[in-house]
Amino acid sequence: MTNNEDTAEVELRADADVTRLSLIGCTKQKRDEPARAGDIYDESSYFRKRRRYSNLYCDDFVVISAKHHVLRPDTVIEPYDLSLSAPASDENGMTTEEKREWGTETKAQLKAMDWSDVDEVVVLMGQSYLRWVQDAFEDIPVMFVYPFAQHSGIGEQLGWLTEQNEAAEKTDPKQQQLPF
Hints:
Layout (H helix, E strand, L loop, with lengths): L19 E6 L9 E2 L8 H13 L2 E6 L3 E3 L4 E2 L18 H17 L7 E5 L2 H7 L9 E3 L7 H16 L12
Parallel strand pairs: 1-3, 1-6, 6-7
Antiparallel strand pairs: 2-5, 3-4
């Protein structure tokens, strides 16, 4: 695990004002070779649908990674096998203490971000990741929304994402209220 001395500051896109940002959780399924963080998880339909939602409804996104914490989508990373949702007994799992350390570092990186151009954050990650970082949201002066609160399990979330993505392709969703 990294310690706070290694906290990397993550900058948002500089080419546009960001008013709506999404946080997308990583997935176990990854490409077999190094790739950009916004693409390495393409093997997962769950990631692809969340990225599509972010591209339609948000101005920018960052990836929340079990290994790398907070990543810009254009940051190139190597494939890895680590998961907060796997049991500690699994070779890819993390102990409770490792999850706490991960949460501490991830929260530090989130708090270090420049939030001045962000009004709203859409959290698109599962509970196994969210529970370790959500208290950081209280210290960040933007509105955080969690559309999956009403959708338990990946199956329901995938269904909701499919509906929202299909509906958004018929309108300009960035100009609308979020659909939840």
